Amino acid sequence: MADIPFPRGVRDLLPNEALFKNEVLKKLEVIFQQFGFISIDTPNFEKMALLKSKGGIGEDTKLIFELKNDDLGLRYDHTMSLARYISMHQEIPLPFKRYYIGKCWRREEPQKGRYWEFTQADVDIVGTRSPASDAEVIATAATFFDIMGIKYRVLLNNRKFMNAFFAKIGIKQELIMPVLRAIDKLEKIGRDGVLEQLRGLGIGNDAVAKVDELVSLGGSNTEKLQHVERYLDDKAPQSEMNELISLLSLYSIKGDVILDFSLARGFDYYTDMVVEFKIVGEGDVAKDSIGGGGRYDNLIGMMGNRPLPAVGCSIGIDRLLAIMGYTKSDRYTYAPVFVAWVKPSNYAYALKIANQLRESGIAIDINVSDRNISNQLSYANSMRFKYAAIIGDGEEKEGKLKLKNLVDGTENLLTPEDAVTIVQRNR
Questions:
Q1: pLDDT of residue 342
Q2: Domain tally, the chain
Q3: Residue 291, domain CATH
Q4: CA–CA separation, 98 vs 36, rounded Å?
Q5: What's the pLDDT tens digit per position in 362-402?
Q6: What whole-number distance in Å separates Cα of residue 385 and Cα of residue 70?
Q7: Does the pLDDT value for residue 178 go beyond 90?
Q8: In terms of Cα–Cα distance, which of 155, 100, 105 is closest to 287?
Q9: 345 and 324 in one domain?
Q10: Is 175 found in the same domain as 36?
Q11: What is the domain extent for residue 85?
Q12: Is 198 within a domain?
């Protein structure tokens, strides 16, 4: 076919890219499990009535991929599915710590680092309002970034701060969510663009100036909290934020924890604390968001069952992989050893050797094509195997194998047991 049909907003991964991604996800899952989160499984699609429910993802419902004639849509995120799951499975002990790694779909304009289909990894805790649960989900994600060598900042805010502030400066209740959505676009449209949107909502110049002052506020976390204190009749959010910041210090995470009143997070379901992880770097990756989340204490109750508080955090896997340079990975195979044989009559013994090495815990590939030994070794080099185990008549007669190091070119005649020792030592 001259032009092979291929959809927008998606991509194929080459073997080295897919391997890199899988290795990252394996490490991530280990961290999730070490923090006591357990896995569940939910469908890739949900009822449109759920996805578009009031108090859910908000104005972004227009970005849902709808399955025509079935009243179904591909999941936009993992949070709505979790809320539905908890509402349907009330027998689950609380608090419930769940992780999920899987694909989501959003019909927004494809661009660098943004796709129609993408992988998202979530941790959530359902059933407690304690700041300890907020700290736990944040620290879980941060620990993973630390292990992967990612430099980041943890940005925090609280919707209750913002709501109280907006009410004090005269912004009407029905405009609070549109104002938050405007602030959430600060990096995309800039300060002037946000101010223009605020004025477009009919907000007076004095209130716009105060919003601008708040979201631009610098200083320490303590100074920022003192700034908003005069707007708070209820001091609980301030106390909870202080406790959260204190708890995060106990985890010894490497990223700086910064209170940032410009952080809004656009989803309607957030009620209190919101968090975002920002890259510390240069050039295109500087200030990229690689994760975020917050507390959504009303979402589960909106589905008609018992109201349950919840908090969660998502990691954007695709953007993280791009920052880590996954396309430049030179690993094409999980197997460090390729078993090659000289003649077809050597295949049975070569397979015996391959299985013996596999039983020792070493991943092994073996030649299954009708090609000469030169082509086999050329293939092994192109696939970047570290070793080739070569089997000919001489090796078969002695019950040994020739282990060739494809990196430095050295080779040795060894017993299978000695070959296992060398490969395991040099993984």
A1: 97
A2: 2
A3: 3.30.930.10
A4: 9
A5: 999 999 999 999 999 999 999 999 999 999 999 999 999 99
A6: 48
A7: no
A8: 155
A9: no
A10: yes
A11: 15-328
A12: yes
At which of 265, 294, 328 does a domain end?
328
Say whether both 320 and 411 belong to one domain: no
Tokens of 236: 């609980």
Tokens 């969510």, located at residue: 177
Ramachandran assignment for 161, one of left (phi > 0), alpha (psi -120 to 50 degrees), beta (any other): alpha
Please report whether residue 2 resides in a domain. no
Long-range contacts of 357-364 (CB under 8 A, 24+ apart): 357/389, 357/416, 357/419, 357/420, 357/423, 360/420, 360/424, 361/424, 362/335, 362/336, 362/337, 362/420, 362/423, 362/424, 363/334, 363/335, 363/336, 363/337, 364/335, 364/337, 364/338, 364/339
Assess contact for 279 and 288: CB atoms under 8 A.
Answer: yes
Cβ 273 vs Cβ 241: under 8 Å: yes
User: 277 with 353, same domain?
Assistant: no
Going edge to edge, which strands form the sheet with 66-67?
A: 45-47, 72-74, 66-67
Q: For the whole model, what pTM was predicted?
A: 0.91
Bridge-partner residues for 366, per DSSP? 339
Return d(Cα 122, Cα 100) in angstroms, integer. Answer: 5
Q: Are strands 337-341 and 364-366 parallel, antiparallel or unpaired?
A: parallel
Interstrand relation of 337-341 and 387-391 (parallel, antiparallel or unpaired): parallel
Residue 51 has pLDDT above 80, yes or no: yes
From 298, 328, 358, the end of a domain falls on: 328
The dihedral sign for the CA sequence 87, 92, 97, 102: negative
Distance, in Å, from the CA atom of 77 to the CA atom of 106, rounded to the nearest integer, reads 9
